[in-house]
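Form 7-S
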Amino acid sequence: MRHRSRADRRGRVAILPVLLLASITAATALAEDHRPTRDPVHEPWTLDQWCSNLRAELRILGWSIEPCTDIPWQLSNRRSVLGKPIPVVEFGDPGATNSTLVVSMVHGDENTPLFLALRLARHLVQDEARLKAASIRVVIAPLVNPDGFFRGTRTRTNAHKVDLNRNLPTKDWAGLALRMWKTRFGSNARRFPGSQPASEPETAFQTELVERIAPQKILSIHAPLNFTDFLILAISARMKALHSAGLLVSTLTPAAIRRSRTSGALRIFTISLFRRAMVA
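Output:
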Protein backbone atom coordinates (compact mmCIF):
# COMPACT_ATOMS: atom_id res chain seq x y z
CA MET A 1 0.00 0.00 0.00
CA ARG A 2 2.83 2.35 0.88
CA HIS A 3 4.55 1.63 -2.46
CA ARG A 4 1.30 2.24 -4.32
CA SER A 5 0.75 5.54 -2.52
CA ARG A 6 4.21 6.72 -3.49
CA ALA A 7 3.53 5.74 -7.11
CA ASP A 8 0.27 7.62 -7.04
CA ARG A 9 2.05 10.65 -5.67
CA ARG A 10 4.73 10.39 -8.35
CA GLY A 11 1.98 10.08 -10.98
CA ARG A 12 0.23 13.15 -9.68
CA VAL A 13 3.50 15.10 -9.64
CA ALA A 14 4.22 13.99 -13.22
CA ILE A 15 0.78 15.12 -14.34
CA LEU A 16 1.08 18.58 -12.77
CA PRO A 17 3.44 20.05 -15.43
CA VAL A 18 1.10 18.78 -18.15
CA LEU A 19 -1.91 20.39 -16.49
CA LEU A 20 0.05 23.57 -15.91
CA LEU A 21 1.13 23.68 -19.57
CA ALA A 22 -2.45 23.03 -20.69
CA SER A 23 -3.71 25.83 -18.44
CA ILE A 24 -1.12 28.26 -19.79
CA THR A 25 -1.98 27.27 -23.38
CA ALA A 26 -5.72 27.73 -22.76
CA ALA A 27 -5.14 31.08 -21.06
CA THR A 28 -2.95 32.23 -23.96
CA ALA A 29 -5.56 31.14 -26.50
CA LEU A 30 -8.28 32.98 -24.57
CA ALA A 31 -6.16 36.13 -24.46
CA GLU A 32 -5.46 35.88 -28.19
CA ASP A 33 -9.21 35.73 -28.88
CA HIS A 34 -9.49 39.29 -27.55
CA ARG A 35 -6.54 40.69 -29.47
CA PRO A 36 -7.07 42.60 -32.72
CA THR A 37 -7.50 40.23 -35.65
CA ARG A 38 -4.25 39.60 -37.54
CA ASP A 39 -4.16 39.04 -41.26
CA PRO A 40 -2.30 35.87 -42.35
CA VAL A 41 -0.80 37.85 -45.26
CA HIS A 42 1.63 40.23 -43.60
CA GLU A 43 2.41 42.31 -46.68
CA PRO A 44 -0.34 44.47 -48.22
CA TRP A 45 -2.24 42.82 -51.04
CA THR A 46 -1.63 43.87 -54.61
CA LEU A 47 -4.58 44.51 -56.90
CA ASP A 48 -4.01 41.07 -58.45
CA GLN A 49 -4.18 39.46 -55.01
CA TRP A 50 -7.39 41.35 -54.27
CA CYS A 51 -8.92 40.09 -57.52
CA SER A 52 -7.79 36.52 -56.91
CA ASN A 53 -9.15 36.40 -53.36
CA LEU A 54 -12.36 38.09 -54.42
CA ARG A 55 -12.93 35.50 -57.15
CA ALA A 56 -12.52 32.76 -54.55
CA GLU A 57 -15.10 34.36 -52.25
CA LEU A 58 -17.58 34.86 -55.09
CA ARG A 59 -17.31 31.16 -55.96
CA ILE A 60 -18.13 30.30 -52.35
CA LEU A 61 -21.17 32.58 -52.53
CA GLY A 62 -22.26 30.88 -55.74
CA TRP A 63 -22.11 34.03 -57.88
CA SER A 64 -20.92 33.75 -61.47
CA ILE A 65 -19.48 37.27 -61.65
CA GLU A 66 -16.02 38.10 -62.99
CA PRO A 67 -14.94 40.95 -60.69
CA CYS A 68 -11.87 42.28 -62.46
CA THR A 69 -11.40 41.46 -66.13
CA ASP A 70 -12.07 44.59 -68.27
CA ILE A 71 -12.96 46.68 -65.19
CA PRO A 72 -10.30 49.41 -64.77
CA TRP A 73 -9.96 49.27 -60.98
CA GLN A 74 -7.71 51.88 -59.41
CA LEU A 75 -5.90 51.62 -56.09
CA SER A 76 -6.61 54.45 -53.71
CA ASN A 77 -4.04 55.92 -51.33
CA ARG A 78 -5.85 54.36 -48.38
CA ARG A 79 -5.80 50.74 -47.31
CA SER A 80 -7.67 48.79 -44.65
CA VAL A 81 -6.37 48.25 -41.13
CA LEU A 82 -4.77 44.99 -42.27
CA GLY A 83 -3.28 46.45 -45.43
CA LYS A 84 -5.84 45.28 -47.98
CA PRO A 85 -6.54 47.62 -50.91
CA ILE A 86 -9.86 49.43 -51.33
CA PRO A 87 -10.17 49.78 -55.13
CA VAL A 88 -12.42 52.22 -56.95
CA VAL A 89 -13.48 52.48 -60.58
CA GLU A 90 -14.58 55.58 -62.49
CA PHE A 91 -16.77 55.76 -65.58
CA GLY A 92 -17.88 58.57 -67.86
CA ASP A 93 -16.69 62.15 -68.05
CA PRO A 94 -14.07 62.98 -65.35
CA GLY A 95 -14.96 66.67 -65.59
CA ALA A 96 -18.73 66.23 -65.36
CA THR A 97 -20.61 68.22 -62.75
CA ASN A 98 -23.28 65.50 -62.69
CA SER A 99 -21.48 62.85 -60.64
CA THR A 100 -22.66 59.86 -58.64
CA LEU A 101 -20.70 57.96 -56.00
CA VAL A 102 -21.69 54.36 -55.23
CA VAL A 103 -20.32 52.66 -52.11
CA SER A 104 -21.04 49.16 -50.80
CA MET A 105 -19.80 46.63 -48.26
CA VAL A 106 -19.29 49.17 -45.49
CA HIS A 107 -20.41 46.22 -43.36
CA GLY A 108 -18.37 43.15 -44.21
CA ASP A 109 -21.12 40.63 -43.43
CA GLU A 110 -23.70 42.10 -45.84
CA ASN A 111 -23.02 40.18 -49.03
CA THR A 112 -25.65 41.35 -51.52
CA PRO A 113 -24.36 44.95 -51.83
CA LEU A 114 -21.18 43.50 -53.34
CA PHE A 115 -23.25 41.60 -55.92
CA LEU A 116 -25.05 44.80 -56.90
CA ALA A 117 -21.91 46.96 -57.08
CA LEU A 118 -20.04 44.47 -59.26
CA ARG A 119 -23.06 44.02 -61.56
CA LEU A 120 -23.32 47.78 -61.88
CA ALA A 121 -19.62 48.08 -62.73
CA ARG A 122 -20.01 45.35 -65.37
CA HIS A 123 -22.96 47.23 -66.89
CA LEU A 124 -21.13 50.57 -66.98
CA VAL A 125 -18.14 49.04 -68.76
CA GLN A 126 -20.51 48.58 -71.71
CA ASP A 127 -22.31 51.91 -71.17
CA GLU A 128 -19.39 54.29 -70.72
CA ALA A 129 -19.67 55.94 -74.15
CA ARG A 130 -23.21 57.02 -73.34
CA LEU A 131 -22.09 58.41 -69.97
CA LYS A 132 -19.39 60.49 -71.62
CA ALA A 133 -21.79 61.77 -74.26
CA ALA A 134 -24.24 62.82 -71.55
CA SER A 135 -21.45 64.35 -69.41
CA ILE A 136 -22.08 62.01 -66.49
CA ARG A 137 -19.50 60.65 -64.06
CA VAL A 138 -19.93 57.52 -61.91
CA VAL A 139 -17.50 56.28 -59.27
CA ILE A 140 -17.91 52.89 -57.56
CA ALA A 141 -16.21 51.64 -54.39
CA PRO A 142 -17.56 48.08 -54.13
CA LEU A 143 -15.72 46.79 -51.02
CA VAL A 144 -15.13 49.46 -48.39
CA ASN A 145 -14.57 46.97 -45.55
CA PRO A 146 -12.31 44.22 -46.95
CA ASP A 147 -11.07 43.09 -43.53
CA GLY A 148 -14.62 42.31 -42.42
CA PHE A 149 -15.41 40.51 -45.68
CA PHE A 150 -12.27 38.42 -46.24
CA ARG A 151 -12.64 36.34 -43.09
CA GLY A 152 -13.68 32.79 -42.27
CA THR A 153 -16.66 34.31 -40.47
CA ARG A 154 -17.49 37.71 -41.93
CA THR A 155 -18.00 40.63 -39.57
CA ARG A 156 -20.00 43.83 -39.69
CA THR A 157 -17.07 45.74 -38.18
CA ASN A 158 -13.53 46.29 -39.42
CA ALA A 159 -10.37 44.74 -37.95
CA HIS A 160 -10.44 47.24 -35.08
CA LYS A 161 -14.01 46.09 -34.33
CA VAL A 162 -15.44 49.49 -35.29
CA ASP A 163 -18.73 49.96 -37.14
CA LEU A 164 -17.57 52.10 -40.07
CA ASN A 165 -21.10 53.35 -40.69
CA ARG A 166 -21.00 55.03 -37.27
CA ASN A 167 -17.42 56.30 -37.44
CA LEU A 168 -17.99 59.09 -39.98
CA PRO A 169 -17.03 62.53 -38.60
CA THR A 170 -20.47 64.10 -38.36
CA LYS A 171 -20.93 67.38 -36.50
CA ASP A 172 -22.80 65.70 -33.66
CA TRP A 173 -20.49 62.67 -33.31
CA ALA A 174 -18.78 63.82 -30.11
CA GLY A 175 -22.08 64.50 -28.38
CA LEU A 176 -24.14 61.57 -29.60
CA ALA A 177 -22.18 58.63 -31.03
CA LEU A 178 -20.92 56.93 -27.89
CA ARG A 179 -23.92 57.97 -25.81
CA MET A 180 -26.38 56.49 -28.33
CA TRP A 181 -24.25 53.35 -28.65
CA LYS A 182 -24.55 52.80 -24.90
CA THR A 183 -28.18 53.82 -24.39
CA ARG A 184 -30.01 52.91 -27.60
CA PHE A 185 -27.92 49.91 -28.63
CA GLY A 186 -26.92 48.61 -25.21
CA SER A 187 -23.19 48.79 -26.03
CA ASN A 188 -23.71 46.24 -28.81
CA ALA A 189 -20.22 45.39 -30.07
CA ARG A 190 -21.47 45.21 -33.68
CA ARG A 191 -22.35 48.91 -33.55
CA PHE A 192 -19.34 50.33 -31.73
CA PRO A 193 -18.66 53.75 -33.36
CA GLY A 194 -15.01 53.89 -32.32
CA SER A 195 -13.40 55.92 -29.57
CA GLN A 196 -13.01 58.93 -31.89
CA PRO A 197 -14.66 60.06 -35.14
CA ALA A 198 -12.83 59.13 -38.34
CA SER A 199 -10.45 56.93 -36.36
CA GLU A 200 -10.36 54.21 -39.05
CA PRO A 201 -8.48 54.17 -42.37
CA GLU A 202 -11.62 52.90 -44.14
CA THR A 203 -13.48 55.97 -42.86
CA ALA A 204 -10.71 58.23 -44.11
CA PHE A 205 -11.00 56.49 -47.49
CA GLN A 206 -14.71 57.36 -47.69
CA THR A 207 -14.38 60.98 -46.60
CA GLU A 208 -11.42 61.63 -48.90
CA LEU A 209 -13.28 60.03 -51.81
CA VAL A 210 -16.30 62.28 -51.23
CA GLU A 211 -14.04 65.34 -51.07
CA ARG A 212 -12.22 64.36 -54.26
CA ILE A 213 -15.30 63.40 -56.30
CA ALA A 214 -17.63 66.10 -54.91
CA PRO A 215 -20.65 64.01 -56.00
CA GLN A 216 -24.15 65.32 -56.46
CA LYS A 217 -25.52 61.91 -55.37
CA ILE A 218 -24.19 59.23 -53.05
CA LEU A 219 -25.74 55.77 -53.29
CA SER A 220 -24.84 53.60 -50.28
CA ILE A 221 -25.98 49.98 -50.57
CA HIS A 222 -26.66 47.94 -47.43
CA ALA A 223 -28.35 44.64 -46.64
CA PRO A 224 -29.59 44.68 -43.04
CA LEU A 225 -32.33 42.46 -41.61
CA ASN A 226 -32.38 40.13 -44.64
CA PHE A 227 -33.26 42.73 -47.26
CA THR A 228 -31.28 45.08 -49.48
CA ASP A 229 -31.44 48.83 -48.88
CA PHE A 230 -30.54 51.52 -51.38
CA LEU A 231 -29.74 54.58 -49.28
CA ILE A 232 -29.36 57.63 -51.47
CA LEU A 233 -27.98 60.88 -50.13
CA ALA A 234 -29.77 63.56 -52.12
CA ILE A 235 -27.56 66.59 -52.66
CA SER A 236 -29.07 68.35 -55.66
CA ALA A 237 -32.53 69.95 -55.49
CA ARG A 238 -33.98 67.53 -58.05
CA MET A 239 -32.52 64.56 -56.18
CA LYS A 240 -34.17 65.79 -52.98
CA ALA A 241 -37.52 66.05 -54.78
CA LEU A 242 -37.24 62.51 -56.17
CA HIS A 243 -36.15 61.20 -52.80
CA SER A 244 -39.11 62.86 -51.08
CA ALA A 245 -41.44 61.29 -53.63
CA GLY A 246 -40.04 57.86 -52.77
CA LEU A 247 -38.66 57.29 -56.26
CA LEU A 248 -35.05 56.68 -55.28
CA VAL A 249 -35.24 54.37 -52.27
CA SER A 250 -36.27 50.76 -52.48
CA THR A 251 -35.71 47.35 -50.93
CA LEU A 252 -35.33 43.80 -52.18
CA THR A 253 -36.31 40.70 -50.21
CA PRO A 254 -34.15 37.56 -50.13
CA ALA A 255 -36.76 35.79 -52.27
CA ALA A 256 -36.42 38.44 -54.97
CA ILE A 257 -32.65 38.12 -54.85
CA ARG A 258 -32.84 34.34 -55.20
CA ARG A 259 -35.18 34.66 -58.19
CA SER A 260 -32.87 37.22 -59.79
CA ARG A 261 -30.00 34.75 -59.96
CA THR A 262 -31.73 33.01 -62.83
CA SER A 263 -34.03 35.68 -64.22
CA GLY A 264 -31.66 38.65 -64.16
CA ALA A 265 -34.41 40.71 -62.52
CA LEU A 266 -32.12 42.04 -59.80
CA ARG A 267 -29.63 43.35 -62.35
CA ILE A 268 -32.42 45.00 -64.36
CA PHE A 269 -33.95 46.47 -61.21
CA THR A 270 -30.60 47.84 -60.07
CA ILE A 271 -29.78 49.45 -63.41
CA SER A 272 -33.28 50.92 -63.68
CA LEU A 273 -33.07 52.41 -60.20
CA PHE A 274 -29.55 53.66 -60.76
CA ARG A 275 -30.41 55.35 -64.05
CA ARG A 276 -33.13 57.36 -62.30
CA ALA A 277 -30.57 58.54 -59.77
CA MET A 278 -27.81 59.07 -62.31
CA VAL A 279 -29.67 61.44 -64.61
CA ALA A 280 -31.28 63.50 -61.84
